[in-house]
Design goal:
119 residues
């Protein structure tokens, strides 16, 4: 560890920087805000529609996965922009791949929910 922090202090610091990152995403990333609102709107339905604990967890995690992938995509975009704002084929490809990951995470939600609710 580069900063030399160990034990509980490291866990506390890691938690703080994680919340800092989520706060930044909330302030700066409209897609994350929209997905977070949808997450909170749909979570009650996950617990209502799931017939058992396994189904409820799967429905919940399908929603949470979207947020995780969006945060990772945002991280890729931030790093690419940090390197340089000029157009480069690899920079564009990195951003497109992150966007594709978000798209797939969004597509899995209706698939998972449909299989559980109607399957």
């Amino acid at each position: 560890m580069a900063d030399g922090i160990k034990g509980w202090r490291r866990i506390i610091r890691a938690t703080k920087v994680s919340y800092d990152g989520m706060g930044w995403a909330l302030r700066e990333e409209e897609a994350f805000r929209i997905e977070l609102v949808l997450f909170f709107l749909m979570v009650p339905f996950a617990f209502w529609l799931g017939e058992n604990a396994v189904e409820r967890v799967i429905l919940f995690w399908s929603l949470l996965l979207v947020l995780v992938v969006e945060l990772l995509n945002t991280a890729v975009e931030v790093v690419v922009d940090r390197i340089g704002l000029e157009r480069h084929v690899l920079s564009g490809r990195a951003k497109d791949l992150g966007s594709a990951a978000v798209h797939l995470s969004l597509l899995q939600v209706p698939l998972v929910w449909g299989l559980i609710i109607f399957g």
